[in-house]
Design a protein that fits this description.
The protein is mainly beta and about 350 residues long. The chain has one helix and 21 strands.
């Protein structure tokens, strides 16, 4: 009985392994047919040794928007959706344990390793259409009928967070390779044909160095570190109108005893994040009520609202105490809001370069 079962398994395994190859997408950058983008950390990335705390944002790249064209591949014309498959080469295990890499898509952070294995980004091919489409693009399929190729656009950035494990004793990260963050592919997994699908990667992790610079970050508002909008009459609700704006400050304090001595001349950047739902990439929805959202902007540009999980330069460290002016605005999203108390929370991550 054991031998019979073993023979059945040996027979079935090759069939199971061949199945993904029979249904696959080939996804490339639409304009250039590129299959690779490498995000390189610029120069030296200095990180406070005090930021080696689990979940702390250490660095974020600029945002990229890429349009992909996906076509049926390997003779399968059925049509598929497209996904971002994280860590396609399973190389993240080689990183120093103090670092965690991720990708932000539509202002939502996604762990590359240890989270969900893939992220849906949209329909990439439609059901089978005319045969001529098989040879219109670069897959050159010989199928009798081929799915109509579509384009899908994705805006993304790369980020690095601390895992809570201690950084190297020297402070210097020694990972010097190129690490694939994601591959664009279809519903049935990774295409088995080499060099047929777009990958985004990151390099320059060896530029990261933990240093002795530990500023104290404070939010100063009209109710301590809380922004209080007070009572808002629902009778004044007008969809799309800013009802009230409250100023607040971010203070960067280097006067405390453990501030360190390697801060001078560093460029500070701030990034906002929230666990609250969003109406769009910048509008935070409060809890316990509905009908309005909260937006944050620099005081110098009051109507340029800051998207979540994006870098915003603050300025150079040039003293012991720096203050940066911001505004929090309440915007009506309907003319008939729900009555009641509300609260919303956002985290301000301040990093430096």
């Amino acid at each position: 009985m054991t031998k019979t079962l073993l023979r059945q398994l040996l027979f079935l395994l090759p069939c199971l392994a061949a199945s993904p190859a029979a249904s696959a997408l080939s996804c490339k950058e639409a304009a250039t047919e590129s299959i690779k983008q490498v995000i390189t950390l610029p120069g030296t990335i200095s990180i406070s040794s005090g930021d080696a705390v689990r979940g702390r944002l250490l660095w974020r790249s600029e945002q990229y928007t890429t349009t992909f064209r996906c076509v049926d591949a390997q003779g399968e014309p059925g049509g598929e959706d497209a996904f971002l498959y994280w860590d396609p080469t399973r190389a993240m295990a080689q990183l120093h344990p103090s670092l965690e890499l991720g990708v932000t898509v539509n202002s939502v952070d996604n762990r590359v390793s240890g989270g969900q294995p893939r992220l849906w980004i949209g329909p990439a091919t439609a059901p089978p259409a005319i045969k001529a489409n098989c040879k219109q693009y670069w897959n050159k399929s010989n199928a009798a009928y081929c799915a109509t190729s579509l384009v899908v656009s994705v805006s993304f950035s790369a980020y690095i967070r601390a895992t809570g494990s201690p950084p190297p004793a020297s402070g210097q990260i020694t990972n010097t390779g190129v690490y694939d963050l994601f591959q664009v592919d279809g519903v049935n997994g990774l295409n088995t044909t080499p060099n047929s699908n777009f990958r985004a990667a990151i390099s320059g992790l060896g530029n990261i160095r933990f240093i002795s610079c530990n500023p104290e970050i404070r939010v100063v508002a009209n109710a301590g570190n809380v922004i209080d909008f007070g009572r808002i009459p629902s009778s004044e609700a007008r969809m799309g109108v800013i009802q009230k704006t409250v100023p607040f400050q971010i203070e960067v304090d280097l006067t405390h005893p453990t501030a360190g001595n390697q801060c001078d001349g560093r460029m500070l950047t701030a990034s906002l994040s929230t666990l609250n739902p969003l109406a769009d990439n910048a509008t935070i929805l409060p809890t316990h009520t509905s009908g309005f959202g909260i937006l944050v902007s620099r005081a110098s540009t009051p109507t340029s609202y800051i998207p979540m999980n994006t870098n915003n330069p603050l300025g150079l460290i040039n003293g012991n105490l720096m203050r940066y002016e911001f505004l929090a605005s309440l915007k009506w999203l309907t003319s008939k809001p729900t009555l009641g108390a509300f609260n919303a929370a956002a985290t301000i991550n301040v990093t430096f370069r």
